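Pilot study result, target chain (127 residues):
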Amino acid sequence: MAGSLLLGGCVGNPFKDAKVDPASPVAADVTRLTRQPGKFPTFASIPKAPTDIRPLAQYGRDAYAVLAEGEALTQATAPGTWTLQGTDAFAEKARRDAGPQIEPPKPGDAEAFARELRERATPPPRR
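Predicted structure:
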């Protein structure tokens, strides 16, 4: 009985008798909208539960599978589980694939390049 009395207080419209400040820029809209009867949803308008999703228990199984794979990866890559072998052959193949080695620039190359650009540059017209 007490529960129905408590819920009964929630059924009414708390804004029905509310006073609106006439100086408010939205006073006319508030008054108009509170006076219009509104369309309320019914239980029939609640959509049916989707059928094209995985079962709820599958979420937990998938989460455990991810955790298990993470643990397996951690164990497989733990210190002492692998060693580096054949690194010289790997490095040689990488050098061949990269192509010929380019010589580093000489100290004067940058200054010569900058001087050439300054000589070719055309200053903007004076106003």
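One observation from the pilot: Residues 60 and 66 are 10 Å apart (CA to CA). A full batch analysis is planned for the follow-on phase.
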